[in-house]
Design a protein that fits this description.
The complex is a heterodimer of chains A (about 110) and B (about 110). Chain A is mainly beta. Chain A is built from no helices and twelve strands. In chain A, strands 2, 5, 6, 10, 11 and 12 form a six-stranded mixed beta sheet that branches. Chain A has a four-stranded antiparallel beta sheet with strand order 3-9-8-7, with no helix packed on it. In chain B, a hairpin with a 5-residue loop joins strand 5 and strand 6. Classes of the chains: A mainly beta (about 110), B mainly beta (about 110).
């Protein structure tokens, strides 16, 4: 079945550091891929998405590229801020099936 | 990590009826979360359910429409009451796995006709 494997956290970075959170997936077909973010005390929010191979999703300085050859959708940001501290979830959707990664907690220190 | 069994996985319901969604966790957890994902939108938190107390609802969600039960530390139900087509969504329960993140149920895809 479909599944998402996400880098274990927690991740702690200093402000302006480069961020990578790895995400790989297993799917039987051609899923859409997502990154969600959950800020402290809030619900999940869609951060970015990609619907086909080689698509790049981007938002708020975050990027992720849909790599079918490596079945990956790694999240990157060139310079993190304290306000980026949150839990990040990778997810896939294929037809009626939606799967989420376990979440990676990011803490950015000033 | 916690494993969540959520059911039903999908249902098609008539408007005006109610559906109860169940989540069973294989370990005791203090808090359980219920989310909704409407078509083409991100997940939205409906409520947080603690065992032994009333659920805490987010803005825009009320107990009469989405009653929640939390009879023990491993189980919770969400009822979608008096359904309309606008309630057609994916509903997910979630628990805090540990300090590193959350585990989600596989979701219930509800279609109201």
């Amino acid at each position: 079945g479909n599944s998402v494997t996400q880098m274990e956290g927690p991740v702690t970075l200093s402000e302006e550091a480069f961020l990578t959170i790895n995400c790989t997936y297993t799917a039987t077909g051609y899923p859409s891929l997502f990154w969600y973010v959950q800020y402290p005390g809030e619900g999940l929010q869609l951060l970015l998405k990609a619907t086909k191979a080689d698509d790049k999703g981007s938002n708020k300085g975050f990027e992720a590229t849909y790599r079918k050859e490596t079945t990956s959708f790694h999240l990157e940001k060139g310079s993190v801020q304290v306000s980026d501290s949150a839990v990040y979830f990778c997810a896939l959707s294929e037809g009626d099936d939606m799967r989420f990664g376990a979440g990676t907690r990011l803490t950015v220190k000033p | 990590s916690a494993v969540i069994s959520q059911k039903p996985s999908r249902d098609i319901c008539q408007r005006g009826t109610s559906l109860t969604i169940q989540c069973q966790v294989d370990s005791q957890v203090t808090m359980m979360f219920w989310y909704r994902q409407q078509p083409g939108q991100s997940l939205t938190l409906i409520a947080t359910a603690n065992q032994g107390s009333e659920a805490t609802y987010e803005s825009g969600f009320v107990i009469d429409k989405f009653p929640i039960s939390r009879p023990n530390l491993t189980f919770s139900t969400l009822t979608v009451s008096n359904m309309s087509p606008e309630d057609s969504s994916i509903y997910l329960c979630s628990v805090v796995r540990d300090v590193h993140g959350y585990t989600f149920g596989s979701g219930t895809r509800l279609t109201v006709v």
